[in-house]
Amino acid sequence: MREKMLGKQMQSVKPGLKMAGTWKYRTRAVSGMLLAMMFGAGVAAMAQAQGKLAAAPPVTYNNRFEIYGGLNFMNFQAGQNLPTRMNMGGGEILGTYWLTKRVGLAADYRGEAGTTPVFPSAPTSPNLSTIDRPLVYMNMGMLGAQLRGPKNQFAALNLHGYFGVAHGVFDGGTGSVPPQNVGLYTNRTKPIAAVGGSIDVNRSKNFAVRLSPDLIFEHFGTETREFFAISAGVVYRFGNKD
To answer: Is the distance from CB of 131 to CB of 175 less than 8 angstroms?
Structure first.
């Protein structure tokens, strides 16, 4: 009887593993498509920017420092064998020290939270009637670089790459039941990286509105997995290099 139950559970997990593989390739495709669209739209906007569309001159990009703050969305999978992914939302703070007008050193913090599905056969908790979509949250700290690409009075295109660690808390909604018993990771700190780009639409010499999609690489489980993230917020530039 027990072997039959285990067999049924494995059969229910197999389609989820296939779905996870499909998601992996979809994530790459969607991220690449969004990056291409963003840069294409940015180049077109920059080429057409005239008169009233442009920020008040002069936007010189001669700033030494830059601070970005925004809201962030990230796709994630909170357990090695969970058949379904989750969505997380939170905030991002990024500080950049521009060595030149093109190259900057960056420090990035992101805080995310969201609820996740668990195994259908998840045990109940003594403190909860059921364990349904428990809370997961994550703190990420990364260092890396920003590369400023084409720019003009109206907008600037950037590329970036960051690497660091993420601490995930997976027992926030499981009560006294260990998170691994419902298909989640245990609380842990693991490597994480973000590679992507951004477009800054200038509102003045010092302020710009930013849209920034990312491809996230994490290693919470036994393999490196890729997820999509995107943030939107405000950039403040200050401190002249001259």
So the answer is: yes
Q: Contact at 8 Å (CB) between 118 and 182? A: yes
Query: pTM for the full model?
Result: 0.76
CATH of the domain at 142: 2.40.160.20
Q: Let me know: does 190 contact 38? Beta carbons within 8 Å.
A: no
179 with 187: CB under 8 angstroms? yes
Q: What tens digit of pLDDT does each residue of 109-122 get?
A: 999 999 999 887 65
Question: Whose CA is closest to 223, among 9, 13, 17, 84?
Answer: 17
What's the domain count of the chain?
1
- Number of Cβ atoms within 10 Å of the Cβ of 206: 14
Q: Range of 23's domain?
A: 2-240
State what percent of residues in the chain have pLDDT above 70.
72
**How much is the pLDDT for 206?**
94
**Are 4 and 200 a contacting pair, CB within 8 Å?**
no
